[in-house]
Amino acid sequence: MRIAVFDTHRHDRASLEEANAAFGHELVFLEPRLNAQTASLGAGFPAVCSFVNDRIDRAALEQLRGGGVRLIALRSAGFNHVDLEAAAALGIAVVRVPEYSPFAVAEHAVALVLALNRKIHRAHARVREGNFALDGLLGFDLHGKTAGLVGTGRIGRAAARIFHGFGCRVVAHDREPAQELRDLGTEYVPLDELYARADIVSLHVPLTPATHHMIDAAALLRMKRGVVLINTGRGALIDSRALIQALKTGHVGAAGLDVYEEEEGVFFEDLSDRVLQDDVLARLLTFPNVIVTAHQGFFTREAITAIATTTLASVAAFERGEPLIHQVRAEAVRAR
Question: Which parts of the chain are beta strand (E)?
Answer without folding.
Answer: 2-5, 26-29, 47-50, 71-74, 93-95, 146-150, 169-173, 187-188, 200-203, 227-231, 252-257, 290-292
